[in-house]
Amino acid sequence: MEIALLLLLPILIALTGFIISAVKNNQRYSITFKEFLALLGAVSAVVTIGYLISRYAGIYDEELWNGRIAKKQQERVSCSHSYPCNPYPCGDSKHPSTCWHTCYEHTNDWDWALYSTNNERIEIARVDRRGSNEPPRFTRAQINDPTAVVHSCKNYIKANPWTLLRRQGMVEKFKNQIPSYPIKIYDYHYVNRLVDVTGKIPAHEAALWNQDLMDINATLGKKKEINIVLVVVPTSDSAYLHALEEAWLGGKKNDLVVILGVSAYPKIDWARAMSWTRAEELKIMLRDQLQQIGTLEKRTEIVKTVSVLADELFVRTKMSEFKYLMAGVRPPIWALAILFVIGTGLSIALTLYFWNNDPFGSRNY
Q: What pTM does this model have?
């Protein structure tokens, strides 16, 4: 319906030009039936494709895939440093010119790449122009080091999240305690998995938390298709779970977000888990066992509990199960306005072009 409305004015413009052309019956300045069909086809294609792109842009998302370094490789590649060389005359006698061959500085260049257990390629920046010298970061990388790589994906939940999320309006209640989703890569293939909203965890302890969480993600990442995040928040109100669900739209499809309420560090007031997995038993057991542990001082025990339960019970829910939500997706108003302007402008331009030109050679002058 929306596409039809977007095309209504452009079609009327094209039709008006075609009718006027038929009435005037001027062979030099006219629009033939073939040109009219070409005009309609071009405008319809541009508007329809633009509509579909803007519609699907609404479900574009990114997620983290976790694994380990499986291979390190120096790779011979074509030289990327070209320059013009060996000039030679070209053109014709009336318009002589000079042309150039393309030469390269080296016979080849070298890339330095890490490959993960998920077959992801992580390229390490060169330290010299050609890549002849091994980068220190490549040397430092070791087989089995944890990796995290951002992948694009479709997230149908973004199309209509409120049909699935249990509550709305909770973000406002906890607006100063909602962190950004942790997806920023640093040092090529690392991501911090601890989100400390309390600001009370000492830096050296936070580093140990992140190391442990990176390790269990690397171990379970490919096996369980999982991404584990730990959020520590300074509130005794477990309704915070619903605020984070609203802000993060329930997390990514492969997420297991463990949330610990710590109003007085290091005591754990409550524990919850946020995930799209159907394994509700996992969420219940995490809640009960982590609350029983009761303190952030038992880092090793907490990490082990999360790791064991995730390994035993986590089953990733396929995003295809939420594809039905696409029925409710509509492009944003600004996108529709732009498509309307583009469609109308293209229709006017092509109408004038076909009026003054005969690209198909079908007119009889």
A: 0.82
